[in-house]
Predict the structure of FYVE-type domain-containing protein.
Amino acid sequence: MENYVPKQLIRSKSGLRIVARKESLCSPFIIQEPEWIPDKEISNCMKCRTKFGFTTRKHHCRRCGQIFCNDCCDTRLELPRMCFVDPVRICVNCEPQTKIENTFFEKHVKVLTQGDLYNYLFDL
């Protein structure tokens, strides 16, 4: 238990996240949640320009914080770099980069963060 980092489950506007109790204990691989664009500022999808209305709802991409229609933001992916518990909504712009990062994270970062050097450097 010497490498234990106290974590907490928090509810953010984007979903449930597991984060370190202290900012100084966060992994260097974590990226912060983006600032969401307020709904009232956008009347068209930021990708395809479809006008929002009663039947076309607004959806925030959890990675970039921009607002899209369902067609441009219907993919749900894991976002381990943002500590989300469940897969979250990702726009078509962020999807390719997120998939690349998830593959890298799964193959390399998990192994690196379990190594002795990492534990030595980040052991607080």
Q: What stands out?
A: The longest strand covers residues 7-12. The mean pLDDT is 78.
